[in-house]
Design a protein that fits this description.
By secondary structure, the protein is an alpha/beta fold. The protein is built from 16 helices and 17 strands. Strands 9-10-8-7-6-5-4-1-11 form a 9-stranded mixed β-sheet, with helices on both faces. A 3-stranded antiparallel β-sheet has the order 12-13-14, with no helix packed on it.
Length: about 375
């Protein structure tokens, strides 16, 4: 029987770097795209796992929609040549409004991409400028319309909450707009200020207010209150979906199933190892041009770390972590092994028992890191 496998392909090219971004991405290097696609094709062949069946494929970035549709088709073709891909495989591609049109989207759909994740982030012109996004709110709405016209019926939108100086009424209006857009999936991410980003520099200089944690919490709670009226149920800390439209690819991460990452800075989880490709685009291209694997770092995951990861990732899901699953995988009683942190977090209203699962409360989702670190070895 084939082992289920998720595949992530990192596309590290952007027109320009967003003001909040700390991901591995490169602006001004789009001329490297043909060589990069050829390099990823070589990596697919070199790292093929013959006894695996691919159940999900995810093109992430960066801005994958900067790749011509033919390049996406080329990589899917190479994957099909080296792997078994299940008939119902979820194939997701991230795309930015302003980089796509109807013809491009129609071709993606023909090639087999069946899920789109659009990086909208905001529907307010001032906020888009603050974030350094290259699209307008009108372009975002047009992209959503075109995505539907191209035949996509599994569409996810990304938004950011907790922006400095955002009036809560603006966020409330945006949540209403999200519901009216009729999407199957929403991902809402709290703004984090990363070192070296433009936003961090502006906040440090006093030009911009710092993120207000109380305001961010209010926005998160408002989303939790409003989105169910559109049929969108929260299934993970940052994700809401119509029934049956939960992200199968991301679920593979949260459930610690096997996945392989292809491309510069991509990560894999195979067996008991976590493997990270080099973050240097030049090194990646150089090695694979010689049909050699790129430089990698390998972390061997011990029993204690695997247990902690299983608990923490499971707690991200609304259904929580199954006591039976922990018993089956690790041979321990979750409530006995972690009696003290569970009791402490429960007394603070952050954790609760639900049937045979331990899960975060609504308050716990707001303060999840206060829970997670207590389970680390």
């Amino acid at each position: 029987m084939s082992t289920p496998l998720a595949v992530y392909i990192h596309v590290p090219f952007c027109r320009s770097r967003c003001n909040y971004c700390s991901f591995v991405s490169f602006s001004g290097r789009q001329s490297d795209i043909p060589n990069y696609v050829a390099a990823v094709a070589h990596e697919i062949a070199l790292r093929a796992v013959t006894d695996a069946a691919i159940t999900t494929i995810y093109f992430g970035g960066g801005t994958p929609s900067l790749l011509p549709a033919g390049c996406i088709g080329q990589l899917l073709h190479v994957l099909r040549n080296h792997y078994q891909i299940t008939d119902d495989a979820e194939i997701t591609m991230e795309a930015n409004p302003g980089t796509i049109d109807l013809a491009y989207l129609t071709e993606l759909r023909r090639l087999g991409v069946n899920r789109l994740s659009l990086g909208v982030q905001s529907l307010d012109a001032g906020e888009l400028k603050l974030l350094g996004r290259v699209h307008t709110a009108n372009e975002a709405r047009a992209a959503i319309t075109q995505t539907k016209q191209a035949g996509f019926d599994n569409i996810s939108l990304d938004f950011i909450y907790g922006l400095p100086e955002r009036p809560v009424k603006l966020w409330e209006k945006m949540l209403s707009d999200m519901q009216e857009l009729g999407m199957q999936h929403l991902s809402l991410y709290g703004l984090t200020i990363e070192d070296g980003t433009t936003l961090q520099k502006r906040i440090k200089s006093g030009e911009l207010s710092a993120v207000d944690n109380d305001s961010a919490a209010t926005e998160y709670e408002l989303a939790s209150e409003m989105l169910p009226s559109a049929g969108l149920s929260q299934y993970e800390i940052s994700n809401w979906a119509l029934p049956g439209y939960e992200s199968r690819h991301n679920n593979s991460y949260w459930r610690r199933t096997q996945y392989i990452g292809l491309g510069v800075a991509a990560h894999s989880f195979l067996g008991s190892q976590r493997i990270a490709n080099t973050a240097s685009l030049d090194k990646y291209l150089s090695h694979l041009s010689q049909t050699q694997l790129p430089p990698q770092t390998i972390e061997n995951i011990d029993h204690a770390t695997a247990l902690a990861e299983s608990i923490i990732l499971g707690l991200r899901l609304n259904q929580g972590v199954s006591v039976d699953d922990i018993q089956a995988q690790f041979g321990i009683d979750l409530y006995e092994r972690f009696a003290s942190p569970i009791e402490e977090c429960s007394s603070y209203g952050l954790l609760e028992r639900h049937g045979n699962a331990l899960r975060l409360t609504q308050r716990g989702r707001l303060l999840s890191n206060e829970v997670f670190w207590r389970f680390l070895p």
